[in-house]
Amino acid sequence: MTVRSSDAGFLSGVEDIVQSFLRTPLWVTMGWYDFELQYRRAFIGPLWEVIIIAVWVAGLGLLFGRLLGHDQGDYLVYMASGVVLWQYVSSTLTTGANVFVANSRQIVSVNNPMFTYVLRNVIEHLAKLSIHSIVFIAVMVLTRTPVEPVVLFAVPGLVVLVFTTLWAVPLLGFIGARFRDFTHLLRAGMRFLFFATPVFWYADGLDDRAYLANYNPFTHFLEIVRAPLIGESASLTSWAVVLIINLVGIGIMCVVYNRLRRALTLWI
Length: 268
Fold this sequence. Notes:
Layout: H1 5-22, H2 24-37, H3 47-67, H4 72-96, H5 99-102, H6 104-109, H7 115-142, H8 154-178, H9 182-196, H10 211-214, H11 217-229, H12 236-260, H13 264-267
């Protein structure tokens, strides 16, 4: 029985991803090493991540909380959760656009599955997310915000968010490897989207222009995790949007990954 080249390419792409997951100790170690390397010989090490996010949250909270006339405690919890989640999304995607270029030496010299480097990138930023979460927990404690049972629904929301980055990173990585200016363009775009996404402002505060936030997919990805964290239920609309984006994104990633995986070595 003969196998068509397209089928063979698909199977080899799937095998690459499966083999990557089977080498869990490898990409976990590499991702954690990348995380630790940034703070080597720093006196307080990764605690700098906590300080940076804490200053960011405090600054935005004190400024916009009063300007927008929100209850200081509720607003700090809302904004802190948004900043922590946005930092994960933004940093994972922007570094993801450079993931294959940054690992070019290993890609051309070591026989590792290509998807290993995607997992390496995601693990590094998951480590940062865990550190940043300390700030959110501290805000919850300081504002004496009660933890509601609905908070458990943040877990599947976070799983879906992380899963989304697993297919988005290789897509951005291929584009970034082929067009080197793309990484810089993406960074600029993510900075704009920080203000265009309800990270530190409420979407319902736009009144008749709330649809502007609803058309932003990042709004819904934040919603499915943040809403349970602050004691609310994520809307079915947000879940529907997120799941549809994932179905379409996975399909696109499979096609692109199978067709361009072998050509990647020519670009890096």
